[in-house]
Amino acid sequence: MNTHATKINLLAEMIAFSIVDGKLHKREYQFLALIAKELRVSDQEFKDLFHQEHFVIPIKSENQRIQQFYRLALLMHIDGVLHEKEATAIKQIAIEMGLNPSATHRFLELISKTKNRFIEPNEVYALFKEQQN
Fold it and tell me: Which of 38, 2, 32 is CA-nearest to residue 17?
């Protein structure tokens, strides 16, 4: 990720997605805080993102879009409850990101079947690349 603004945008998108079910669970907040730390976003900036309106800036790189989609899928499952609003929202986000709907569907099925909701990143990229051929 190149710029600080891009990192803030990705985190803001994740925060917006985390509350699509109407509440922010403790595990979701902890996961978001971990991502913020990984992206080197300060604690204050992270906390401020919960109180600001954000507009999504499209991600140009397909690999970064896939990575962001994977983060959102992990966030969706982190509280142990899959809400209908989350399932609908993540499919819409994938469409807006320009990700292949068939690959998106296969990925969401795969992640829901794994015990700890973790899929190796290379597997994730391969799944989306497979659909391009």
Answer: 32
